[in-house]
Amino acid sequence: MDHVSVVVEDLHAAIAFFTELGLKADGEAPIEGAWVDRINAIDGIKVNITMMRTPDGHGALELTKFHNPPAISEEPKIAPPNALGLRSVMFEVEDVDDMVARLGKHGGELVGEIVNYENYYRLCYLRGPQGIIVALAEKLG
Fold it and tell me: What is the distance of C-alpha 12 from the center of its chain?
């Protein structure tokens, strides 16, 4: 897998959120033209994208801000964890509690609780930009 794409309203806030999580911006670009219109089957696309690389350099998130046409919201706007579609993106972190506190400063909110999974991981789900669920895992022992 090369990357996962997330459409956001506030590109700068999303960059700050994922930077706090440890990803690094690896290129920003305005995108428009016939090729992007054809691949998306939408005429007149104008977006800005920022690629956010994981610290190991193997994965990436593409953060996309639509200027034309405007982005649309699905219902419900903040989907519950059992909604169909992409469920979550998981990141391994050194300290779940610290990361939850740091991401909270960027709008991150716990979905449920931080739990201990069989003394192997401490896990939680947190809402990130546009309501996506970001899973955090801290390996124990």
Answer: 13
